[in-house]
Amino acid sequence: MSKRTHTTEVGSIACTDLSDLGAGKEGWLVNDPNLLCALDMHTIALANRYQTVIINWADPEGLVAKIRPELSPIASEYITAIEWLVFEEMRALAVGTSRGYFLVYDLKGDLVHRQLIHPGRILKLRVRGSRRDLTQDTAEEEVCVVMPGVLARFDGSEIQKMLQRWFQDSNSNFWDQKPKQRDSEDLENSYERLPHQLWNVSKYGPCADAAITGLMPPPLMEVQSSQRYFCAVTIGEDSVISAFRLSEDRSRSLVGAILSKVVPATFSTISSLSKMIWRSEQSPKKSEPKPQSFARASPLTCLKDHPRKGERLTLSPSGSLAAITDSLGRILLLDTQALVVVRLWKVFCELPYISLFCMFLFFFGSFNEKLHFI
């Protein structure tokens, strides 16, 4: 009687170009803390600190593209996060850097977009669809950028429009005998900045991981308006779990509004006078892009339990549940609507297996989002 196997081979990522990422060493795919991975239906992206390799694991030829972003050697910039962007038939790879830059590449390895989110390290890029309830078939894609104490949100429709323009321009220039090669500076000037929301969620300390779970109702005494409110959950060393109500409103106090108008005008006047007095023949240097101002983030709740520290957060497909791993080897199951921990597990295994357990938990619970555990 032949031995039964419970695994099926679906593809291979064996490729000579993976040697630059450390392939060939025992445990290189699991034990390297600098190795990042993003998996798509037929493609996998692997990245270390300075380059990214895209492989079609269902194709025998394997390699699709090899990306080496233009990183700043002065600031010791490196790759910190990667994630796939999939909109119907369009696919692109999002890359986050240690300086807070959000980069988008197509499958050929060409730079599509480059934008500064906020000065600081991008910890994670989250892409997911959100629905108001289970009766709606239409979903809204969103891209969340997680940084220490900072959250940014992109509307998926804006990124989809940008990718459509890019692929249309690429198809129109396909028959061009001398295609124009554009560097990152020309690319930043060619397209406008993608609109996004930016929030400061560092009230309880810098976060190690975070996620926007979905829409939430406005405060009780808030004037009804067309703006939306989002719920965000953060974890970190100072606070195991923190929740915030994120508003799209970027209104500030009267003093802040006056300073935002007076201070830039004063500096522009001083700089123009200095240029008139001290004329220089040197070419002017390009100024660094400035991030936009923060929108309102109101704290909702906080769980502090020293020495417990939040380490990793896994969100369910609908955003109604979140599994949080802590430094004591436990898994906390959080109801993101009621902001209550509904279950607590003690797991005696390593961190990669805990992540697989969280994924299996949400896969099992995706059949019924109002899940009741026995």
TrEMBL record:
Keyword Nucleotide-binding: no
Domain (Rab3-GAP regulatory subunit N-terminal) ranges: 28-346
Segments traversing the membrane: 351-368
Keyword annotations of the record: Membrane, Transmembrane, Transmembrane helix
Protein's name in the database: Rab3-GAP regulatory subunit N-terminal domain-containing protein
